[in-house]
């Protein structure tokens, strides 16, 4: 049932970002690498109807959904190795997506309506080895240098040793913890509802909602087409690609906690009570 109550949100104090497909164009590169290996064995290109079920879920690119569709004549392990080899070749080619650099630069000097500095953190399911490949170019390194080292959470971060992958909220809650541990002395800890999560994947949006945070969904145009007419369910975290229980953590359609935008270039600062110095 759609919610008719208009929430009264506190000013945003922290923005937490996914990386792949949101800040950098690695989703297209993941697709390229998969298609190279699929073509090698006479299989068709990966369709978005399947890719949409893989995005944002750790390990899904070599999981059951993919292989049930792909029907490759090689073992899963061999596919995984060939895919990784293509990624080693192509990840260094990745570039920032439109609006990413400007948005991060602006947020690093922004204030909210209460005059508080906006904190930012990175929370990505990418492991260190692939992160190093993806940051080979100077422009990508410069983009991600907007995040302090202690506010950059990768999937093999020791603090995530017992964590669940998205759509569980664990990585976003750790990112918030890392922000709070580095606030200026005497500054009041930031609460989840004072956080804004930026995500491109459907499980990522769900993870943000489960963390009790507001969410900005910035889907690839092909992913947006797959979920046309279901946008409010995505923003509520109620698509349910991966069942993990705890449905009390989810939102309701049109409850005001989520918004979809087509590009980071179109981020509505004023809607979230954020001001950029002129």
Automatic annotation (TrEMBL):
GO MF terms held by the record: phosphatase activity
SUPFAM superfamilies (UniProt xref): HAD-like
Record-given protein name: HAD-like protein
InterPro entries (alphabetical): HAD-like_sf (IPR036412), HAD-SF_hydro_IA (IPR006439), HAD_sf (IPR023214), PGP-like_dom2 (IPR023198)
Residue ranges that the Swiss-Prot or TrEMBL entry lists as coiled coil: none
Cited Pfam families: Hydrolase
Gene3D superfamilies named among the record's database cross-references: HAD superfamily/HAD-like (3.40.50.1000), Putative phosphatase, domain 2 (1.10.150.240)
Organism: Hyaloscypha hepaticicola
């Amino acid at each position: 049932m759609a919610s008719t109550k208009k929430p009264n949100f506190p000013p945003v104090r922290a923005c937490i970002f996914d990386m792949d497909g949101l800040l950098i164009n690695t989703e297209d590169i993941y697709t390229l690498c998969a298609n190279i290996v699929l073509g090698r064995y006479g299989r068709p290109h990966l369709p978005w109807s399947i890719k949409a079920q893989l995005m944002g879920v750790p390990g899904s690119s070599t999981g059951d959904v993919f292989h049930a569709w792909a029907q490759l004549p090689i073992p899963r392990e061999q596919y995984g190795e060939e895919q990784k080899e293509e990624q080693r070749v192509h990840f260094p080619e990745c570039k920032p997506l439109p609006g990413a650099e400007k948005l991060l630069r602006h947020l690093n000097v922004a204030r909210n309506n209460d005059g508080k500095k906006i904190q930012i953190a990175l929370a990505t399911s990418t492991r260190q080895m692939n992160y190093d490949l993806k940051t080979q170019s100077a422009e990508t390194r410069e983009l991600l240098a907007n995040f302090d080292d202690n506010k950059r959470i990768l999937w093999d971060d020791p603090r995530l040793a017992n964590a669940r992958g998205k759509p569980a909220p664990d990585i976003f809650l750790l990112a918030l913890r890392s922000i709070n541990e580095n606030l200026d002395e005497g500054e009041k800890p930031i609460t989840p509802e004072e956080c804004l999560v930026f995500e491109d994947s459907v499980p990522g949006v769900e993870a943000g909602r489960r963390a009790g945070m507001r969410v900005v969904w910035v889907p690839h145009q092909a992913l947006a087409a797959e979920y046309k007419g279901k946008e409010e369910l995505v923003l509520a975290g109620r698509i349910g690609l991966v069942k993990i229980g705890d449905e009390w953590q989810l939102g309701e359609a049109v409850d005001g906690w989520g918004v979809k935008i087509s590009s980071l270039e179109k981020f509505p600062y004023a809607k979230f009570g954020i001001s950029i110095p002129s």
